[in-house]
Automatic annotation (TrEMBL):
Higher taxonomy: Eukaryota, Metazoa, Ecdysozoa, Arthropoda, Hexapoda
Source species: Holotrichia oblita
Domain of life, source organism: Eukaryota
Entry protein name: Transmembrane emp24 domain-containing protein
Sorted UniProt keywords: Membrane, Transmembrane
Keyword Transmembrane in annotation: yes
């Protein structure tokens, strides 16, 4: 039976509360770096990036899924933002590509902040459009957060059921294979006994 304890709920709450990622690295000239993450269906994703300037160098970025579909793309970037909504459960990646136009090039500093899920939603716009009070906006955010947690729990339960079915199927196959192997060994042992018996009788070693 799939059980969820207090620590599991606490950890998932931490994941949602700190659901934004900030990363910084140095991008060498004429190289590229890709960051990948698995996301569920209909998850809003936002990102903010900044690239240090370098003479005769350009940096492009592209966001795509595992099938190669481009969700966002820009060339010769310095700083900016992007946003998209996932269509299916898939692995999504954002790549930064360095291009040196002339010379040997230098390493450039790239910083990226990504948010997804509840943290990526623009509640300020919802507040202005629906004319909600700050407490109502916070309640809306908490409601979305709880819905996402429930959705994740249902996905975890589904995965647990799939893993259990796979384990039971594997156990059954191992059992049938073991029975088949034992039958083969018994048949081979019987054939060997009968063959040796006929052989010894032919050589008149036994009656």
């Amino acid at each position: 039976m799939f059980k969820i304890n207090g620590w599991s709920i606490f950890l998932i709450l931490l994941v949602y509360i700190f659901d934004s990622e900030c990363i910084m690295w140095h991008l060498d000239p004429n190289t590229h770096k890709c960051l990948k993450e698995e996301l569920h269906q209909n998850v809003p994703v936002t990102g903010e990036f900044e690239v240090s300037e370098a003479v005769n160098q350009k940096v492009d970025y592209v966001v795509r899924d595992s099938k190669g579909h481009v969700l966002s793309q820009r060339e010769d970037i310095s700083k900016g933002k992007f946003s998209f909504v996932t269509e299916t459960y898939d692995t999504y990646e954002i790549c930064f590509i360095s291009r040196v136009i002339q010379g040997r090039g230098v390493s450039q500093e790239v910083s990226l902040i990504t948010k997804h899920g509840v943290e990526a939603k623009q509640y300020e716009g919802i507040q202005e459009a629906a004319k909600l009070k700050p407490i109502e906006v916070e309640l809306r955010r908490l409601e979305d957060l709880s819905n996402d947690i429930v959705h994740d729990f249902s996905i975890m339960r589904k995965r647990e059921e799939e893993m259990r079915d796979t384990n039971e199927s594997t156990n059954n196959r191992v059992l049938y294979f073991s029975i088949f192997s034992m039958c083969c060994l018994l048949a081979l042992a019987t054939w060997q006994v009968l063959y040796l018996r006929r052989y010894f009788k032919a050589k008149k070693l036994i009656e």
